[in-house]
């Protein structure tokens, strides 16, 4: 079973919550693992289509997956073309938020997990910072897909609406996907706050999680046991996040202004709550 639609990003824009909401619709089946990362050449693409199809069930009318890495074109080139060659009729969903806030959220996330140890005053001059910027350049990221897919086949959603008016957003999204738009989804408004959860875990947890041997072991644990393990670790003091001053925020706005303007023009969406 291959998916009918893909949530292609963006990272730190509510993709986990959206994935869970869609999975509660009786006509929709989401991938068993939220992020298959199948279309990343250096990740799972070599596993082949049989592996990909096995990530989905067989008891729904349509299927979808969520992999925010699909809109990190600088880090992972060729994804849009790979998806099109495999799923030319797929519908795409791209959820976004204020580009500056998205950038900082990714920075904080990687600081917590130890994937990036960068002082704020060095952030914009680092390789990681440049990659964060690219993820917040929504027009540039979406343009890669428009080389293959028509704009009307891509649903652009805003994180602010997912948080403030999820019923309205989901109704339009269900219509886009061709499923019953009157279905009521339970638990709306419970935005998944991964940052708070991660801050409660000790630093060595993330180093262990990146170990291939330990990762292989933990993947064999049931989801319930993995959840219990994380809860047991949360007596550790939360780690403090780095302070980002207004000067850095102003520079981010300047660097992202042009792309954001093009994105508004492309989508026809005002994104009124954004800072730029």
UniProtKB/TrEMBL annotation:
Keywords: Glycoprotein, Transferase. Residues 3-181 form the Sulfotransferase domain. One of its GO terms (molecular function) is sulfotransferase activity. The keyword Transferase applies. Pfam families: Sulfotransfer_1. It comes from the Bacteria. It comes from Pelagibius litoralis. InterPro entries: NST/OST, P-loop_NTPase, Sulfotransferase_dom. The keyword Glycoprotein applies. This is Sulfotransferase domain-containing protein.
């Amino acid at each position: 079973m291959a998916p009918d639609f893909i949530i292609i990003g963006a990272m730190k824009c509510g993709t986990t919550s959206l994935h869970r909401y869609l999975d509660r619709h009786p006509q929709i089946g989401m991938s068993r693992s939220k992020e298959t990362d199948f279309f990343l050449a250096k990740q799972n693409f070599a596993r082949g289509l049989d592996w990909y199809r096995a990530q989905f069930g067989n008891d729904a009318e349509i299927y979808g997956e969520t992999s925010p890495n699909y809109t990190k074109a600088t880090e992972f080139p060729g994804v849009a073309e790979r998806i099109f060659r495999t799923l030319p009729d797929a519908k795409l969903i791209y959820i976004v938020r204020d580009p500056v806030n998205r950038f900082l959220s990714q920075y904080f996330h990687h600081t917590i997990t130890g994937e990036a140890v960068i002082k704020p005053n060095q952030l914009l001059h680092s390789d990681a910072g440049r990659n964060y910027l690219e993820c917040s350049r929504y027009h540039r990221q979406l343009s890669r897909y428009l080389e293959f897919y028509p704009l009307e086949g891509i649903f652009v959603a805003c994180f602010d609406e997912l948080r403030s008016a999820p019923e309205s957003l989901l109704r339009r999204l269900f219509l886009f996907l061709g499923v019953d738009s009157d279905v009521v989804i339970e638990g709306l408004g419970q935005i998944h706050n991964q940052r708070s959860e991660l801050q409660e875990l000790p630093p060595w947890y993330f180093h262990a999680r990146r170990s291939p041997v330990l990762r292989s072991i933990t993947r064999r644990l049931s989801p319930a046991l993995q959840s219990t393990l994380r809860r047991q670790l949360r007596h550790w003091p939360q780690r403090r996040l780095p302070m980002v001053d207004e000067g850095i925020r102003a520079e981010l706005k300047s660097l992202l202004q042009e792309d954001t303007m093009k994105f508004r023009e492309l989508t026809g969406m005002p994104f009124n709550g954004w800072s730029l």
